[in-house]
Design a protein that fits this description.
The protein contains 11 helices and 10 strands. It has helices at residues 3-22, 27-38, 43-51, 56-94, 113-127, 141-144, 178-186, 226-240, 297-302, 319-327, 340-343; strands spanning 131-132, 138-139, 164-165, 170-172, 191-200, 211-221, 247-252, 257-266, 286-295, 311-318. It has a 7-stranded mixed sheet with strand order 1-5-6-10-9-8-7, with helices on both faces. The structure holds 3,4-dihydroxyphenylalanine. The site of 3,4-dihydroxyphenylalanine (DAH) has 11 residues, from strand 9 and strand 10.
Length: 346
């Protein structure tokens, strides 16, 4: 090939490259075409092979032409790449963010009011040394009734509208009192427990639900007296409902305690004020909060505890009722409806 022809060819390769480069917009494409022209087997390199065949005098001119084309290609690649970077930067800068849009907050959840009540009650009794005991929600007739002094046809069973399971072989516990039985059968005195948990009764109105929560207390030791029971419940009422509130005991019957009592506390909604129109205590200034009493020796015997040596007290409270009395909630269904407008208030 003549020198002129070679140089023309080189120049037209240079032009061809420039044209192709102009159409590209990604670094990968640009690197690819650069390799197709300048790479070892590239089109420009292929022409270099021709140079060896030229007269030595011409090689210098041709070499210079090669360098010019190569430098031109390399230079235009660099220029093109920096143009791409600059364009991307400009696009980045031009993007507008509306900082006035409200952020998306993710609200942290919190424990359900009933869980809070349960935890707080457990903590307050814990201050007095009571430990948590638990039992299953499906119980035997023996643990739920028999051992607690409810004989088979005892009328007190009628008050505990029971759900039976497995054709009467088991039942859904109607109270947390069977945890007393389980604990006494498995542990030796001194026993000092609280047993929170779900219980079930066929009962459904604004203040009753077929499932609800109770917390049971049991203390068995030498020389336990009724005044100990009074001290424990008074401490609880003062800590949970208000320092200024007093409690009173009204004689009542539960098969597993003797004497047995219903425990009232002063109504925290009208304490010290006008109670005549109080919707919580209905003008009586007292509200019922628990059943309690001294554990009947028959129950201790049923649970193999020496009645000559040990006495004890027990009490039971409704968790929903505690929440309703503390926060003035009038319908028990609020606790189970999962309405955030209600739940987020606590
Ligand atoms: N278990 C009773 C109920 O659910 C409440 C109760 C009353 C528990 C007296 C006690 C107690 O421990 O001594 O109606």
């Amino acid at each position: 090939m003549a020198t002129d022809a070679l140089i023309n060819k080189l120049n037209s390769l240079g032009e061809e490259f420039a044209e192709a480069l102009a159409a590209l917009s990604s670094e990968q494409d640009i690197r690819e075409i650069q390799a197709r022209f300048l790479g070892k087997k590239g089109r420009v390199s292929a022409l270099m092979g021709e140079m060896g065949k030229m007269a030595p005098d011409d090689r210098r001119t041709i070499g210079a032409a090669f360098n010019k084309v190569k430098d031109g290609i390399a230079g235009s690649v660099e220029a093109k790449l920096s143009e791409l970077v600059a364009r991307a930067d400009a696009a980045d800068l031009a993007r507008t963010i509306d900082v006035s849009l409200p952020g998306r907050t993710r609200s942290a959840g919190h424990a359900h009011l009933l869980s809070q009540v349960r935890e707080e009650a457990v903590a307050i009794f814990g201050e007095l040394g009571f430990e948590v005991a638990e039992g299953p929600q499906i119980e035997t007739d023996f643990n739920n009734f028999e051992a607690l002094g409810f004989a088979k046809d005892h009328p007190a069973r009628d008050e505990q509208d029971t759900f039976f399971v497995d054709e009467g072989r088991f039942l859904l516990r109607t109270h947390t009192s069977p945890v007393q039985v389980r604990t006494m059968l498995s542990e030796k005195p001194p026993i000092k427990i609280v047993a929170p948990g779900a219980v079930y009764r066929r009962d459904d109105d604004p203040t009753h639900s077929p499932m609800f929560g109770q917390i049971e207390g049991l203390l068995i030791d030498e020389q336990v007296r009724f005044s100990d029971l009074k001290g424990v419940l008074l401490h609880f009422v003062k800590r949970y409902f208000g320092e200024e509130l007093d409690i009173r005991f009204r004689p009542s019957f539960f098969p597993f305690v003797e004497p047995g009592a219903e425990v009232d506390m002063q109504c925290s909604f009208c304490a010290g004020g006008d109670s005549s129109s109080c919707r919580v205590c209905k003008g009586t200034t007292w509200v019922e909060i628990a059943g309690a009493g001294m554990v009947d020796p028959v129950v201790l015997e049923n649970c193999k505890i020496d009645t000559e040596r040990y006495t004890g007290f027990a009490f039971g409270m409704g968790l929903e009722r505690m929440a309703m009395l503390r926060h003035g909630v009038s319908d028990i269904k609020n606790f189970y409806e999962c309405d955030m407008r209600f739940l987020t208030q606590f």
